[in-house]
Amino acid sequence: MLLRQSFGYVVKFTTLVSSERFRMSRQSSRRSFLQQSAALSAGVWVTSHAKAFARERSANSEIRFACIGVEGKGASDRDDAGRHGQIVALCDVDSDRLEKAAERYPNAKKYTDFRKLFDEMANEIDAVTVSTPDHTHAPAAVRAMKLGKHCFCQKPLTYSIFEARTMRLLAAEKKLCTQMGNQGTSLSGLREAVEIIRKGDVGKVSEIHIWTNRPIWPQGEGRPANPEPVPPELDWDLFLGPAPERPYHSAYVPFKWRGWVDFGTGAIGDMACHTMNMAVMALELFDPIAVTAESEGIIQNETYPKDSKITFEFAANAKRGPVKMFWYDGGRRPPAELMPGVNQGASGSLVIGDKGLIFSDSDYHGTFLLLPKEKFVDYKNPEAIVSPGHFTEFANAIKESKPELAMSNFEYAARLTETGLMGNLAMRAPGKRIEWDAVNMKVTNAPELNQYVSREYRKGWEL
Q: Is the pTM of this model over 0.85?
């Protein structure tokens, strides 16, 4: 049985109410993953050797890309775009990074402000890559999508639950091709594990454990006391984007922004779109009915806690019974006795069924073990569609006008992101079981938390 797409919810855009929440009419109907085209299944992931790079760019020059955030993770996303089309614009708030990227793509126009890029080049681009800090994902991506541009956006898809819902609905309304940058979705190991669960070969799943070595940046502290001079290469105001104004400090950049509430989404935002991905996909773990966080909570409204354990509760549906999913970070781990005979590792996942377990110590779930080993010694993994590569799926979707060819398209990726970000919402009330109305995006038993479903946007950066 080939891996099939099962996230096709029919939605229509409705009016945004003053509280910035949708009243959404949704008809739930499962549709199977459309068979990937022959070009998709037979495609070959091309490496970055210069000769292959030049040949592929020439063959696919019809896709014109604007790349927003062009170094760090943005460098690989940028070069993926260059392999599958023509890069016509580069944008980064750091002029040194921008110039470094421009040396590789000298014909691309350079920008530090993506708003100006869209104002000037809306008719010259077909698609965008968004590889910025979390807090500017949606402001950049939504602006592009409103202009009808296809969108590849890094994980987590958005900073807030409201933004994830907005991007999912907008992509559906505009019929855009999209993909989130959780590359494990394209690994055969993950796809095979999904099929094993869907076939029922580990039985009825009731419990899932996910753990990570994050955070690997500072968290659990307050704002730095003494501002520092802004480095000459950095446009600090553009880095802030929709976030409230604050003085520059090197505690925020580079990379360390992940732990700060105004800019990042902490450990769960960084890794849940990877480590939860297999279980969420296999069991459609969307719209938890309740979430509970065991942690110190948000520290001084500035940073995420040093460690946490978060419990997600999912109601039974027509395909499965109720499920609990447990998240651990900051050194917390599930009980070792749940997986005897294996090395738990710094990061991993464990799916517990009544006939067996699936264990992986891979962040992307590229490899896994079926436990107990002796029970599955002769087990043959089911077939799953082999991906030509994560970004290649996105490019193929654009060329064939088939959004479903990209498996982590926003119809799925936004729902995965919403699930993970519920953990951060629960950290606002540590120890309290937060009850969630997913349709209306409301906490029903702690209304004071609803202000955190979205955020206040600085003027000029609104969605």
A: yes
